[in-house]
Amino acid sequence: MIRGLYTAAAGMVTEQRRHDTATQNIANLNTTGYKQVESISHSFPNVLISAMQGGIVKPIGRMNTGVFAEQSMSKFLQGDLVESGKSTDFALSADLRLADPTTGANLPFDASGKYISDQGEIIYQPQAFFTVQDNDGNTLYTRNGGFTVTPAGELLSSGGYKVLGADGRPVVLNGTVDNLKVDEKGNLLDATGAPTGVRLGISIVTRPENLVRDGNGVFHAEDAQAAGIRYAAAGDNMQVRQGYIEGSNVDVTQVTVDLNAAYRAYEANQKVIQFYDSSLQKAVNDVGRV
């Protein structure tokens, strides 16, 4: 009975986290460059149940001890591009591919941006990010291209981070904001349309599942090599769209369903706990009195 009580309690905690995740997604429906979060649940390790009778142990079988929300995964799908008309607004449009190491053919990623190999390995589609830097010199990654320009000409992200160029240094504009022109590869152009030699630092993250969400629309990589981070190359199927911003990729319908499902599952586990509580009360009071 006590095992069932703990299992139901673990279910309540898990559903509370699922509910909080869905609420977070709904709250960021209109956040530029926001990536939907999904709560991943796993079971606790199974335990082996045995019965002892007359000094002889007889195995009964395995029993699961509950569920827990192990982690939150970001869904790095392309959000809708919205035209803003501002010269300092940028959006990334990318459809990056990854070759199968065995056959050399491009992996067929599904609509959710992942591929499951014959061995059961999950491989996520590479993603492109703007590269920014905080005041401590840490490199961060974002899809929010709503930039601003300081009086000194520094290009800053909406969170106040310095936008880095392909050379790893902060981008500083030489001309006025009105004359800011950027081509599809991220090259800054002069008044005649010629490249200035400065290019936005667009990072390609080969394994985006290794990125850690920091808030303020930015991510960081604890191990850049494990995440397979590099700057964009000429052959990458990626474009910079000036005068556009990327909207949130939250699926409103799916998130609403998840929210209601989490609420109902939480209620179900709550009723189970109430049942166990009532049973224990009878065992202590009524059976004890007999």
Automatic annotation (TrEMBL):
| GO annotations of cellular component type | bacterial-type flagellum
Q: Which residues cross the membrane?
A: none
List GO BP terms, alphabetically. Answer: bacterial-type flagellum-dependent swarming motility
- Does the entry feature the keyword Protein biosynthesis, yes or no? no
Pfam families (alphabetical): Flg_bb_rod, Flg_bbr_C, LlgE_F_G_D1
The record's section on InterPro entries has: Flag_bb_rod_N, Flg_bb/hook_C_dom, FlgE/F/G-like, LlgE_F_G-like_D1
Q: Does the keyword NADP apply?
A: no
User: What domain of life does the UniProt record list for this protein's source?
Assistant: Bacteria
Q: Indicate the segments forming the Flagellar basal-body/hook protein C-terminal domain, all copies.
A: 241-285
Q: Which residues form the Flagellar basal body rod protein N-terminal domain?
A: 5-35
Q: Which residues form a coiled coil?
A: none
Q: For this UniProt record, give its keywords in alphabetical order, as a comma-separated list.
A: Cell projection, Cilium, Flagellum
The Flagellar hook protein FlgE/F/G-like D1 domain, residue ranges: 127-187
Q: Which family does it belong to?
A: Belongs to the flagella basal body rod proteins family.
Q: What is this protein called?
A: Flagellar basal body rod protein
Species of the source = Paenibacillus durus (Paenibacillus azotofixans)
